[in-house]
Amino acid sequence: MELGLRGRKAVVTGGSLGIGRAIARELAGEGVEVAIVARDAARLEAAARDIARESGTRCVPLGADLSDAAQLERAMAEAERALGRVDILVNNAGATPMGRIGDTPDAVWMKSIALKLMGYVRCARILTPAMRARKWGRVINVIGRSGHQPRAAYIVGSTVNASLLAFTHALAQECAPDNVLVVGVNPGPIATPRWDQVVAQGAAGAGRSVEAENAAAIATVALGRLGTPEECSGLVAFLCSDRAAFITGTMIDIDGGGTRCI
C-alpha cells in the first residue's frame, strides 16, 4: 500500500529502542525524515545511523530527558530547525514502573507524570500550532491498555495512561477543525527491552519467577503470544497517512485481543 508519506517530517520520542525505534524505522522507510529523541546518547546515535542506512532517509538524533521541560523545549526547537517543519509527532517516551500504592512514593508518581503525561502534553503544545496553521498534522500518542484496564499492581502507569486517554480525546477535538488528527494507540504485551523490565518488576512484586510472570501475561492475550514492535509501527505509519484521514479522537488497541472492555 502506498501511504503517500514521502517528504513528510516527523518527531518520534523514545525513538532509540523498542516500539519507538520501530516506528521511526517504519516512517523513514516510507520516505519521512525523522528526528528521534531519547536520553541514552550512544544508543540514540546508533539507532539514527542504522535507520538512515536501512531506509536511505535522513534520521536526526536529539538527546534530551523529556521529563525536564527545558530539555524538552530545546529538543523540539532543534527538531524544527533540523527538519524545517514537523508534520507528525509520535509521543512514545515514557516508562512507568510496576508497583502498588504502598510501593510508590511521591517521587515515583512525579517522575512518571513529568516524563509521560507532561512530556506528551508539552511536545503537543509546542508542535501542534504550526501544524494547525498549515492545516495538516498528525499526533500519535502511544499509551497502553492499562489506561482503560487499570491494575492495582501498576497503579501509577494505569493512572498516567488514563490521563493520556482523556488528553488524546480533548486534543483531537481542539485540533480537528485544522485537519490535525490525534489518535491514541494502546500496545499490549510487546516483545521489547521495556517489556522485559516490566515482567521482571511484576515478578518481583508477585513473588514468582520471571517465566511465570511472562506466561501469566501471555495468557491474557487471545492470540497467545507477545506482539512485535513492527506490529505497532505499521499501524502508526498508516494512521499518519492520508489513508487514515477520517480517523481522529479514538484509541486503537494493539494487543492480540487482550483488552476485553466495551
From TrEMBL:
InterPro entries: NAD(P)-bd_dom_sf, SDR, SDR_fam. It holds the Pfam family adh_short_C2. Belongs to the short-chain dehydrogenases/reductases (SDR) family. This is Short-chain dehydrogenase. It comes from Caldovatus sediminis. The lineage of its organism: Bacteria, Pseudomonadati, Pseudomonadota, Alphaproteobacteria, Acetobacterales.
